[in-house]
Design goal:
Non-ribosomal Peptide Synthetase Peptidyl Carrier Protein, Chain A, globular, single chain, mainly alpha
Length: about 90
């Protein structure tokens, strides 16, 4: 089971924002709010999530809304894990 903190740490590591980890909660805006979180970072995050959490993400399953906040990224991972488990 992937916890919120697992996803939060991955986002922080990917963006090299270790000094801000305590400030990142479920409602922390990402896309359009964190300068480091651009389209290249979204692609890198998807790849990292696939590798770390063992999920598969098809191109047609990706929307900007999934990356609006840290909580939305967590929900995205949870949804992909349910799909992988056949639930």
């Amino acid at each position: 089971m992937v916890e919120f903190d697992d996803v939060r740490r991955l986002v922080i590591e990917l963006l090299h924002l270790d000094d801000r980890i305590e400030k990142f909660g479920p409602d922390t805006p990402l896309l359009g709010s964190v300068p480091e979180f651009d389209s290249i970072a979204v692609i890198a995050l998807i790849k990292a999530m696939e590798e770390r959490f063992g999920i598969q993400v098809a191109d047609d399953e990706i929307s900007a809304e999934d990356f609006e906040t840290v909580g939305r990224v967590y929900e995205f991972v949870q949804d992909r894990m349910r799909v992988a488990a056949g639930v």
